[in-house]
Design brief:
alpha/beta, Rossmann fold, 4-stranded parallel beta sheet
Length: about 425
């Protein structure tokens, strides 16, 4: 069924597909669909609930080559693909046999989201947020960001013909700042870390009623975009759920939604329900969820980030407690890796599979390696690694470690000598 919901001002109906209401994560309190992100009943985050119709694989497979092939599983209008957007998704799933051999495991798949329009998975979540924001009547697309989200919001707003307001820490990687600025929206560098930027965005969202902060006031809809990673992985594996998956942790939302996506595929009969072990990856310089997991805690203590993996540098992750629940429920684990291990992970993936990942990808690969070495990941089980951003965005992380093997004269003798031939 398609839900037509009356907007807050009581004058407009909006179409959010099969989404029917918002539900609080803690106690399950229900409330109408609206641009709200915290339950007034138990003050926990809200997420979208659905009334799914009968879904068929063949209908999805006949859909567009973008996340909109899964629109019936998302809180978006029934005609979402008709509006200008960046059409993200349908990125490649690569069987990484060289990496598997290097790590001593049977089979690894790389979900390579560097192929999205702004070269990270954030294009997925922003596309869904923009679709919902349009229905709610917002006029400006905005966000606080550690980098990739800034790129995605600026690009999506430009494509849609909207104004954008993007807030980033002033210490953000230069490449990500330039990639956001080129779209000519309102990019503001803030003197503070991401948690300072996020607090500022929350305050601004309360002052500007026509600004849709994708990860604040429309966060329940935005976060649903991460489910499309699970949908694509399952479809690309021949409509089945992998046995193990390693997911990088920033706010923790991606991991929770990937798990939700796999569950919804089973609930709708698109796949045979089967268990999946969920593993989380963090950088040691910002590892509050990993620390809580290792110490057997249910509460995540905030930290001040100090890591080269800036896209994961969220010291107070909103979904941290829910990540802990899912990882423990699925018999997974959470691990963290040092900056040197992150660099090594980037180079390992590039050397074995020809994929240049940003620092978050280095965290994922290095964490998978560590989990394999300490016996947490089953080496005989099929494992998927999520690579969520392009290495061209974080060149500074490896620029001092790589370069030409030698500088030679333009002669064959010089080349042979440099190569030891």
């Amino acid at each position: 069924m398609t839900a037509a919901v009356r907007a807050q001002n009581g004058t407009k109906n909006f179409d959010l597909g099969n989404a029917v209401e918002l539900v609080s994560k803690e106690e399950g309190h229900r409330q109408p669909l609206a641009p709200e992100f915290v339950s007034l009943e138990d003050f926990s985050p809200l997420e979208v609930a659905y009334d799914f119709p009968r879904l068929r694989r063949e209908d999805i497979e006949a859909g567009p080559r973008s996340i909109w092939r899964y629109k019936q599983l998302l809180p978006v209008p029934s005609n979402v693909e008709e509006h200008p957007n960046t059409d993200p998704g349908c990125t490649r799933l690569i069987r990484a046999d060289n990496l598997a051999k290097a790590l001593g495991v049977k089979r690894i798949w790389i979900k390579d989201d560097t192929g999205n329009p702004t070269h990270s998975f954030k294009d997925r979540v922003v596309a869904v947020a923009l679709a919902a924001a349009r229905e709610f009547g917002f006029k400006v697309l905005a966000c606080p960001s550690t980098g990739n989200l800034a790129n995605a919001v600026a690009a999506a707003a430009a494509r849609a013909g909207w104004d954008s307001v993007v807030l980033v820490p002033k210490t953000l990687e230069r490449a990500k700042i330039l990639m956001s600025a080129v779209y000519d929206g309102s990019l503001l560098a803030v003197d503070g870390n991401y948690d300072d930027v996020n607090r500022l965005a929350t305050e601004l969202a309360g002052e500007h009623e026509d600004w849709a902060f994708v990860n604040v006031n429309v966060r329940p809809y935005y976060s649903e975009g991460s489910k499309t990673l699970a949908f694509e992985v399952a479809e690309q594996l021949g409509w089945r759920i992998p046995e193990q998956i390693v997911v990088p942790i920033a706010s923790g939302s991606q991991l929770t939604k990937v798990y939700k996506g796999f569950n919804e595929l089973g609930e709708t009969g698109l796949v045979e329900p089967s268990p999946v072990r969920i593993f989380g990856a963090q950088a040691s310089g910002c590892s509050p969820v990993s620390s809580a997991y290792k110490n057997g805690l249910d509460v995540v203590q905030p930290v001040r980030p100090d890591t080269i993996a800036r896209s994961l540098a969220i010291g107070a992750p909103a979904d941290g407690p829910y990540v802990l629940d899912i990882v423990r429920k699925t018999n997974g684990a959470i691990e963290d890796v040092t900056d040197d291990e992150v660099r090594a992970g980037i180079r390992l993936l590039a050397r074995t599979e020809g994929i240049f990942a940003e620092t978050a990808g280095g965290v994922t690969v290095a964490t998978a390696k560590k989990l394999i070495e300490n016996g947490k990941i089953d080496p005989d089980a099929e494992t998927v690694l999520l690579i969520t951003g392009d290495g061209l965005k974080t060149l500074d992380a490896v620029q001092d470690e790589i370069g030409p093997k030698a500088t030679v004269a333009p002669t064959t003798e010089a080349v042979n000598q440099a190569l030891g031939l």
